[in-house]
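Q: What does the assembly look like in three dimensions?
Context provided by user:
Components: two
Sequences:
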Amino acid sequence: MTNQIHERIKANPKFQELCAKRSSFAWTLSAVMLIAYYAFVAVIAFFPASLGTPVSEGAITSVGIYVGLALIILSFVLTGIYVQKANGEFDALNKEILDEVK
Amino acid sequence: MKRFGTFSSVVAGLTTLGLSSAAFAAGAIDGAVQKQATNWTAIVMFVAFVLATLGITYWAASKTKSAKDFYAAGGGITGFQNGLAIAGDYMSAASFLGIAGLVFTAGFDGLIYSIGFLVGWPVILFLVAERLRNLGKYTFADVASYRLQQGPIRSLAASGTLVVVLLYLIAQMVGAGKLIQLLFGLDYGIAVGLVGVLMVGYVMFGGMLATTWVQIIKAVLLLSGATFMALMVMTHYGFSMEAMFKHATEVHSKGIKLMQPGGLVSDPVDAISLGLALMFGTAGLPHILMRFFTVSDAKEARKSVFYATGFIGYFYILTFIIGFGAIVLVLNHPEFMAADGKGIMGGSNMAAIHLAKAVGGDLFLGFISAVAFATILAVVSGLTLSGASAVSHDLYASVWRKGRASDADEIRVSKITTMVLGVLAIILGIAFEKQNIAFMVGLAFSIAASANFPVLFMSMFWKGLTTKGAFYGGFAGLISASVLVILGPTIWKDVMGHADALFPYKNPAIFSMTIAFAITYIVSKIDGSQTARDEMEAFEAQYIRSQTGLGAEGASDH
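A: Here is the predicted structure of the complete assembly.
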C-alpha cells in the first residue's frame, strides 16, 4: 500500500517539479548566505583595514558597521523570502501531489 | 553600594555561559568570586518569575500525559511561539552580557561574533528544518536513524547529544553560580543547587510544554529589557548612531579603533574554523533541533526559524547599541568604576548590568539581574530535557527495548534521567567551580558541528550513506574534535600549562568536520554488505516523506 503510494508520487511529474524547484531555491539562498558570510570573514582575515574606513569624509561610522548590519538584515530577509515561497507556492504544489494519491 | 568581584572572575563566570572559548580566552580565570551584599529588588523580581513559571509548570503537568506531550509539547506549539522559544534557547546570559561586554571593550569585534552566531539560522531553514520536521518524532536521532540500523546510530546520536549537553550544562552551572553570587549575593553552592532543583522541577513535571513557556517568557523579558536599554541610549543621541559613535570614540581608550576589526579574529584558519563551528554547530545542537518537533508541521517549522532569526538578529543589534551605550554612560563615570581605577566594577562583562542602573535606576537593575538568572534557568531546562530524551527515547526505548517500550515506561525513564542529570549538574557545577572551563562551550559547538551535524546532514541528503559510514564518521568527528581541542591552545596551553600547544588552532572544526565527512563517505563507499544496499534502497521512501511530509508526525488532538 505505502509502496504503491510512493510509486505514484515518484511517477508524478509535479513531485519531480517540486523537488527540483525547492531544492534549487534552497541551495541558491544557502549559497548567497554562505558566500556573503565567508566573504565577510575573509575580508576580516585578509583586509581588515577596508572595513575600518569611514563611510564618508569626516564621518566616524565605519563601512564595517554597515556591512555587519547588512549581514544581520540579509539573514532575516533571506529566511523571509524562503518561508514566503515554501509556505505558499511549494506547499500548494505539495498539497496537489498528496491530494492526487488520496 | 554593591561591590563586584574581580575582572577575571566575572570573565570566568560569563565565558562559561554560552560563548565560544575564543571570545574571551584572553581573560585569566582564577575562579574566586566574593559573595556580594544581598540584592533584594532582584530577588523579589526573580521570585515573581519563579512563581509564574511554577504556575505554568503546574498547568503544563496537567496537559502532559503521553510521550509526545512530554518530548514535543504534543506538537501543538505555533511557529511564532516556537520562534520565540528558539530565540530564548539561543539568547543565553552570555550572548547578552558577554557580547555587550565585548562591544564595550572592542567595539566592532563584538559585531563579528554576533554575526557568526546568527548566520547559521538561514542555512538551518533552507537545508534542515523541514526535512527534520517531516522525518523526526522527538529527537534528531529519529531522523539520522530513519533508514539505518537503530542500535549503532542512536547510540552515536545519544553520545553526541549527551557530550554536548553535559559540556554545556557544566558551563552554564558554573557561570550561573558565579553570576548569581555577584548579582544576588547568594552562596555559590546555594545558587547552583537552586538552578539544579528548579530545572529538574520544570522538566520533570512540565516536560516540553513547561520548558517551552519558560523559554518564551524569558525571551520576552530579555527582549523587552534590552529594547528599553537601547532606546534610552539612542534617545541620548537623538537616534543618531553617528553621534553615539562619535562620543564613544572620544571617551574610549581605543578611540577610532572601536570602528575597526581588531585582533579578535586575526588568524585566517582559526577565523574560518570558528565560522564553521558556529554556523554548523548550531545545526547540530540537540536541544535546538528538538524544538522543531514541537510544531505541527513543516510549514510551522519554517515559520519558527523565520521568527527566531528575526528575534535573534534584533537582539544582537540591541546588544551592539547597549555595548556602545555602556561606553558613554558607564565608562569613566565614578560610581561604576573599580576601586583600583582599572576599568569598571566587575569587569567588562558587567557593562550591560551597570548600564541598566545608569538608564533605569535600582529597580531596572533588579529587573535585568532577575532576567539574567531566568535566562540561565531556561537554557539549562532545555538542555536537560534534550539529554533526558537521548537516554529515554534513543537509548532505552529504541536501543535497549527495541521500540517495544510503552509510553509510560519511556516517560518514567525520562523523568529518572532528568533527576540524575539534575544531580549530576549540581555535583559537576560544584566540582568545576574553580576549574578553567572556558573551553567547554566552544568544544560543545565543535562537537555538534563535527559529530551530530555530518550524520544528520548526510542521512537526509546522501543516498549512499550506510550505518557503518555514519557510525565511524560520527565517532571520528566526536573524537577528533575533542582531541584537537585538548591538544590545542585552550586546554594544552591555558589549562594544563604547557609552554606550547601541540595543535596550533583554537577552533578545530575545519579539520574535525572534514575528518567526519571524509570517513563517513569512505566507509559508506567500501561497505558492500547487503544491509548497506538495503539502506540505500530505503532512501527513496525517506526522500518522499522528507519532501512531502507524507506519514509525518502530526499534532496530537488536545
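Follow-up: The longest helix of chain B spans residues 351-400.
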